[in-house]
Design goal:
By secondary structure, the protein is an alpha/beta fold. It is about 25% helix and about 15% strand. It has a single domain, classed as Rossmann fold, CATH 3.40.50. The chain contains six helices and eight strands; from the N terminus they run E-H-H-E-E-E-H-E-H-E-E-H-E-H. A six-stranded parallel beta sheet has the order 2-1-5-6-7-8, with helices on both faces. Helix 5 links the parallel strand 7 and strand 8. The longest helix is centred in the middle third of the chain and has 15 residues. The protein starts with 17 loop residues before the first strand and ends with a helix.
């Protein structure tokens, strides 16, 4: 029998719902990410409120023959190829573009929509969330939160981002990644997790998505509950 998603009322236990700021993946936006996280939000509704925002960088879509069609307003947190306004997690570059605009966007969200107990990032959003963890640890007053959930995250290969990984990151973190992820291979997520102190690792047999099966809920629930006191 599947575990119930409702936390039983126990004397002395808090029923606080934590607030998470959600950072979508590359080529997504807050609306598409909301659609893709329906199962997660449903399962965590008694534990977490997930607030979505869109990245500030608009991704230029390739011209299609015939034109027409409704664009989905694809967004990104930074471009690894500034000349083409594009991104690839595998790019080893000296300079990127757009990160400062994204930091300002998230800082505004913390100021106007916060407070947030944690941040939830997926793919490029998870890589960006790891940078926010580093900035929080360095004392940046704009980003005040207690933990991070990083799904299919990775370490940026841009040399100008190297300073984010110089010191071990002590922010409590849960790292979720799939064994068959072809977009962000599992070893890239493990590489990112290695920069955190005592990271919680949650692997699954699937690919590039946020898993919400019984096995994952057994990890999500106690991790979130530790911050609901």
């Amino acid at each position: 029998m599947a575990a119930a998603t409702v936390v039983p009322t126990v004397p002395g236990r808090s029923t606080k719902v934590v607030r998470l700021l959600a950072l979508h993946g590359y080529w997504q936006n807050e609306h598409s990410f909301r659609e893709r996280t329906g199962a997660l939000r449903k399962n965590l509704k008694n534990r977490a409120e997930i607030v979505m925002i869109s990245a500030p960088l608009c991704i230029p879509e390739p011209e299609e023959e015939g034109g027409g069609g409704q664009r989905e307003d694809p967004r990104g947190w930074w471009f690894s190829n500034p000349e083409k306004s594009s991104f690839n997690a595998m790019d080893e570059t000296k300079s990127c573009a757009g990160l400062e605009a994204s930091l300002n966007t998230v800082a505004k969200a913390f100021s106007e929509l916060g407070p947030f107990e944690g941040i939830l990032g997926f793919s490029q959003g998870a890589a960006f969330a790891a940078m926010l963890c580093a900035l929080k640890q360095q004392g940046d007053p704009r980003f005040q939160f207690n933990f991070a959930i990083l799904v299919a995250g990775f370490k940026s290969r841009a040399s100008e981002h190297a300073h984010f990984y110089k010191e071990p990151i002590t922010v409590p973190s849960l790292h979720v990644f799939g064994d068959t992820d072809r977009v962000i291979p599992a070893d890239m997520s493990q590489e990112l997790a290695a920069h955190f102190v005592e990271p919680v690792l949650l692997t699954h047999t699937g690919g590039h998505y946020i898993p919400v099966c019984a096995a994952q809920k057994k990890v999500y629930f106690p991790f979130l509950d530790s911050f609901r006191k």
